[in-house]
Amino acid sequence: MVSDAFTYKKNILFLGIVLLFCFSCKQKSTNQQEALPKKIATNFPQDWEGKWEGILVITKPTGDTTQIPMQLHILKHDTSAGWDWKIIYGPEDSGTRPYELYVKNKEEGHYVIDEKNSILLDAFYIGDTFYSRFQVSNSFIFTSTKLVGELLEYEITSGGGSHISFSGSKGNIPVVKSFGVAVQQKAMLRRK
User: Fold this and answer.
1) Given Cys at both, which of 9, 101, 115, 167 links 83, Cβ 3.0 to 4.6 Å?
2) For range 28-48, the mean pLDDT
3) What contacts 148, CB < 8 A, 6 or more positions away?
4) Kindly report the CA angle at 59 between 152 and 163, in degrees rounded to 5?
5) 46-191 in CATH: which number?
6) What's the pLDDT band for 79 if we cut at 50, 70, 90?
7) How confident is residue 65, by pLDDT bands cut at 50, 70 and 90?
8) Residue-averaged pLDDT of the chain
């Protein structure tokens, strides 16, 4: 009978600890959900306007890196509804890309980068990041740019357009193709 009373008290104590743990996890989860914004407030691209500069680090899977100066100028046009989206790699006279940015559908976060040579790249502002994804010849290119405090985080990854493997295709599972990544380019840019 003493043994039964001891076991009963031990079980009650264990149950209390489990309930306390569950309650604290639920409370933490609820607080985390409340901390998530319902909608990210930003005024893109106006909040990003300015001349940004930093060092672009180009990294290959082997670990080899190259570093070059980089600038990104985002400046409102005086006469049109667009912005300069000028990218400068290295010395300004040799690596300037005088692109322009236009709004296609602001509600959908859809923009167009005009390379001024008949190439128009669709780009999307989602959450707090500006993305574009496109194919040039046999390479897939993915870009993302994000304002993080006082820094503009700029990143490009690229790789071949031919898949390196595929899997799935059993039963109702679709075929999934995997593609390699050959180069990462990343820069943390500061406003001049």
Assistant:
1) 101
2) 65
3) none
4) 105
5) 2.40.128.20
6) confident
7) very high
8) 84
Indicate the pTM of the whole model. Answer: 0.76
DSSP code string of 129-152: EEEEEEEETTEEEEEEEEEETTEE
The confidence band for 1, taking pLDDT boundaries of 50, 70 and 90, is low
CA 56 vs CA 40, 61, 112, 184, 188: distances in Å:
28, 16, 23, 10, 8
Question: Of the given ranges (14-18, 39-43, 57-61), which has the lowest mean pLDDT?
Answer: 14-18
Domain boundaries, the chain: 1-36, 46-191
Residues 6+ apart with CB under 8 A from 141: 132, 133, 134, 135, 156, 157, 158
- Burial per residue of 21-37, b for 16 or more beta-carbon CB atoms within 10 angstroms, e otherwise: eeeeeeeeeeeeeeeee
Judge contact between 191 and 51, C-beta under 8 A: yes
Q: Are 120 and 134 in contact (CB under 8 A)?
A: no
Q: Which of 149, 143, 135 is nearest to 189 (CA)?
A: 149
The C-alpha torsion from 61 through 190 and 43 to 31, rounded to 10°, is 70
